[in-house]
Amino acid sequence: MTHRLVLVINGGSSSIKLALRKQGSSKPVFEAQAERLNTPQASYSFPGGSECSLPDANHQDALNALLPLLDAHLDQPISAVGHRVVHGGEQFTGPRLINDEVLAGIEANAPLAPLHNPANLSGIRAAMKLLPDIPQVAVFDTAFHQSMPPHAFRYALPDELYAVHGVRRYGFHGTSHQYVAHQASLLTGRAETAGAWLSAHLGNGCSSCAILDGKSMDTSMGLTPLEGLVMGTRSGDVDPNLHAHLARTLGWDLPRIERLLNRESGLLGLSGLSNDMRELEQARAQGHGGAQLAIEVFCYRLARSLAGLAVALPRVDGLIFTGGIGENSALTRALTLSHLAVMGLHVDPDRNSALKRGEAGRIEATGSPAILVIPTDEERQIAEESLTLLDRQHLEMETPA
Ligand code: ADP
């Protein structure tokens, strides 16, 4: 069987990232990215190459410069372009072949992700123009969580806000949670997607998820990615009355409060030092009180969220750590697990600290449910989902009704 090539594109508000992936492979064939788009400092770079300046380039200019770099790595034509799209609302419950209806749907969901969806659309439109003959697929961060039951996704607000205005919990990081849960099933010798998992995706953004047999049952992020866990610069859950309190007592307006909660809080706000876990671990080791507090709050709140999510499952087969912090910080894993003995979860300290960067492994003590560290690979998941969708559509076209 030939292993096909998929170009995965992640369009951000000021950046675009490309990854050429081969089906079934855990390593990218080639990666490149352009940053600071629409500014005089715009540039692109790729591993092993020096940074090239592209003053005032937009998404299409950047893609125009990056696509020729792929040529040296193509042993066959590209079979699909897979685009990461942040918000698919309730409309998109899985990957979709991009056409006018899907473009309109992504645009219609932009009020729910005002920074991300328009940026994703810029990447999609640029790729459609430059690669018009290759099928383009949208893979949504929210789609995996569309299996949540209403008692998990509804807020206790008047019905009209949901029915008319779409105010509900959506959840994000779906591609990552889905990927690591699948890997957990494989690593523990289960069939394809079987298992009841708690998963913690801990990067700059952080979310937890309860997954049963490949379906998201509940997750910590909500209408927006601000809800839930403590993150790098995001507060996660706060009293919903905080907005009113800050407006009344400090006279702060909405943009000021949004900046506080999204950019100045989380690990950065608590520590007064940094949003970067590596830096905080070093500072903690040198006795920095803010760093110590930030890490403690981060781990305690994570444990509380995981314990809460367990009620969405009939049992817990295991807990998965992923994302830059989950994969690399033995301290975060150990402190979080120190709060979860009530669930029978016990870490083996030696296995926890011996795990090498980039490696998947099991770190539970004897008798504990599985505790897994699994490097996430959202691009691989996007590539595989894009190909599965194309294969399904071919089959449907070939099978008479
Ligand atoms: P993003 O959400 O931007 O993809 P990542 O998944 O790369 O982010 O995670 C970034 C976080 O991972 C940062 O807080 C970083 O400090 C942390 N991290 C990376 N390596 C380590 C390490 N060895 N020890 C502790 N934290 C780490």
Automatic annotation (TrEMBL):
Q: Which cofactor does it need?
A: Mg(2+); Mn(2+)
Q: Where in the cell does this protein reside?
A: Cytoplasm
Kindly indicate whether the keyword Magnesium belongs to this entry. yes
Name the pathway it acts in.
Metabolic intermediate biosynthesis; acetyl-CoA biosynthesis; acetyl-CoA from acetate: step 1/2
Q: How would you classify this enzyme at the top EC level? A: transferase
The residues the record assigns to binding ATP are 17, 201-205, 276-278, 324-328
Positions of the catalytic residues: 141
Q: Which Gene3D superfamilies match?
A: 3.30.420.40
- Site (Transition state stabilizer) at 173, 234
Q: Which Pfam families does this chain map to? A: Acetate_kinase (PF00871)
According to the record, how does the cofactor bind? Mg(2+). Can also accept Mn(2+).
Q: Does the keyword RNA-binding apply?
A: no
Give the GO molecular function terms: kinase activity
Positions binding Mg(2+) in this chain are 10, 378
Keywords for the protein's UniProt record, in alphabetical order:
ATP-binding, Cytoplasm, Kinase, Magnesium, Metal-binding, Nucleotide-binding, Transferase
Spell out the PROSITE patterns in the cross-references: ACETATE_KINASE_1 (PS01075)
Superkingdom assignment? Bacteria
Q: Where does substrate bind?
A: 84
Catalytic activity, reaction form: acetate + ATP = acetyl phosphate + ADP
User: EC number(s) of the enzyme?
Assistant: 2.7.2.1
Protein role = Catalyzes the formation of acetyl phosphate from acetate and ATP. Can also catalyze the reverse reaction.
How does the annotation summarize its subunit structure?
Homodimer.
* Protein family per UniProt: Belongs to the acetokinase family.
Protein name, entry field: Acetate kinase
Source organism of the structure? Pseudomonas neustonica
